[in-house]
Amino acid sequence: MKIELSPIGYVRSPFKEPSGVPIQTKAGNEYRGTVEILEQYSEGLSDLDGFSHIILLTYLHRSKGYDLKVFPFLDDVKRGVFSTRAPRRPNPIGLHLVRLERVEGSILHIRDIDMIDGTPVLDIKPYIPKGDEREEYKLGWLTGKIEGFETRMADKRFDRSQ
Q: I need a surface site. Which of 30, 31, 45, 118 has the fewest CB within 10 A?
């Protein structure tokens, strides 16, 4: 089966290279950017401005190749890629929860950036806390390792994604 997706827009970000990008959107709360939606999709933005947060699904366009076992940024033990958020994946799809500051025409002004400039956006969904939060969860191999997780920046491991 072949799946074809086309971008609906592109991220404009202060980050030009993978190294130094916040590991997760929560670490990027001081960084602002925009999502420039292609004109043919701009009508789909109506009613989005009432949401404080949105989920962006992106194509990690600078990710080249993948490994099924990786060294995640919080560990020095190789882990299965599907138990990590490493960008080098069989299908390099990114998931980003960002703050929506405002909508101006076909431009989304966002905050909490963890994407590099030019990242293609595949879809946008509103963040709905009652539907997305979970009271009970397990953290697997991350148990005891996520202290400070939300403030980490990408290191040289992500340079391999170019």
A: 30
pTM for this structure? Answer: 0.83
Rounded Cα gap, residues 141 and 125, in angstroms:
29
Q: Tokens 């958020």 identify what position? A: 85
DSSP string of 128-162? -HHHH--SS---GGGTTT-TTGGG-B--GGGGGG-
Domains and CATH numbers, the chain: 9-128+137-161 (2.40.30.70)
Q: How many CB atoms lie within 10 A of CB 159?
A: 13
Averaged pLDDT score across all residues of the chain:
86
pLDDT digits (tens, 9 = 90+) for 53-79: 999 999 999 988 999 999 887 788 999
Partners of 98 in beta bridges:
54
**Cα 63 from Cα 61, distance rounded (Å):** 6
If you ran DSSP here, which 8-state letter would residue 44 be given? G
Calpha distance 96→113 (Å, rounded): 8
Of the candidates 123, 89, 110, the one whose C-alpha atom is nearest the C-alpha of residue 7 is: 123
Q: What are the Cα distances from residue 111, in Å, to 59, 104, 135?
A: 19, 15, 26
Report the alpha-carbon distance of residue 53 to residue 119 in Å, rounded.
19
